[in-house]
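Usage example:
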Amino acid sequence: AQKITQTQPGMFVQEKEAVTLDCTYDTSDPSYGLFWYKQPSSGEMIFLIYQGSYDQQNATEGRYSLNFQKARKSANLVISASQLGDSAMYFCAMRERLYNQGGKLIFGQGTELSVKP
Amino acid sequence: NAGVTQTPKFQVLKTGQSMTLQCAQDMNHNSMYWYRQDPGMGLRLIYYSASEGTTDKGEVPNGYNVSRLNKREFSLRLESAAPSQTSVYFCASSEGPGHLEETQYFGPGTRLLVL
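Running the assembly step on the lines above writes:
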């Protein structure tokens, strides 16, 4: 069973607008962490933001925020005021605590975001 | 800051050839990982090393072996390459093991083409 699902293979957004990238997850572990990574065309993986399952507030990092809805098991990434440099592949990932020796991450399939000028 | 380095950056192999992908980190991290990235499938874990001296299988270990040479270095070996192993390979490290919030830092990747 897919543990991390990103249902949007590709998305377009106009420069300066906000965009939401969807991520749903599946786990029975009450303790887990959720991550978003950015992969530009150059190929490197860049960490963006983290949300813990027990965090009371949604995580924010600059123009990035995470819309965490625990009951719905979703952890959507919101990018405000999109810039051309935001064009990239975005990956959602999860780390579980109980069934996870070694801190492994489970990744979704990714969403390719294109920002239009 | 070198972070996580990988060699080579690109490699072409013929079916049946062997090769070793090298990975090193200079962040004094305990945990290291090897992933492969294929179109439409995200990153899948091949092997990981939670700490020096230990290695464990990930989601897709068949056809690969690993060696945690020391705390800094974690190599991935393909003994007999197959076209299905054509992929981009990423090495990553984290402070580890154990903290939910710890970030994994990735190397630049190795593009492998098996003919």
